[in-house]
Amino acid sequence: MQGLIEEGEETIQQKGDADVKDAALIAAAQRVEHYEIAAYGTVCEYAQHVDQSGHRMLSETLEEEKEADSKLTKLAVNSINKKAEAS
């Protein structure tokens, strides 16, 4: 996770077209979301067998992470990537 965050920070520091950097930042953010989705999915599965109340909480968090990823995808596809491509 630390490496993913560092990649995002490096992208922020790079010179270049703002729209291209925005697209790269969304990609970096999605890599973080995918990592979180994988982690929460795993512990959610474990909790299902051990702790039902914990499972519910983890399931909610997992769904929030999936929703965040979906929003980033929509932002990229409907706006940012098109601007970056035109740059």
Topology:
Layout: H1 2-13, H2 18-50, H3 52-86
Helix pairs in contact: 1-2, 2-3
Describe this structure in words.
The protein is an all-alpha fold and 87 residues long. The protein has one domain (18-86). Helix content is 92%, strand content 0%. The chain has three helices and no strands. It has helices at residues 2-13, 18-50, 52-86. Helix 2 runs antiparallel to helix 3 (52-86). The model has no long low-confidence stretch (mean pLDDT 92).
Overall SS class: mainly alpha
Task: Give me the strand/helix succession.
Answer: HHH
Question: Between the first and last Cα atoms, what is the distance in angstroms?
Answer: 30 Å
Global morphology: elongated
What ranges have pLDDT less than 50 throughout 5 or more consecutive residues? none
User: Rg, please?
Assistant: 16 Å
The amount of helix comes to over 70%
Please provide the count of β strands.
0
Estimate nothing, just give the exact number of structural domains: 1
**Largest beta-sheet characterization:** none
Provide the residue-averaged pLDDT: 92
**Number of helical stretches of at least 4 residues:** 3
Beta-strand portion reads under 5%
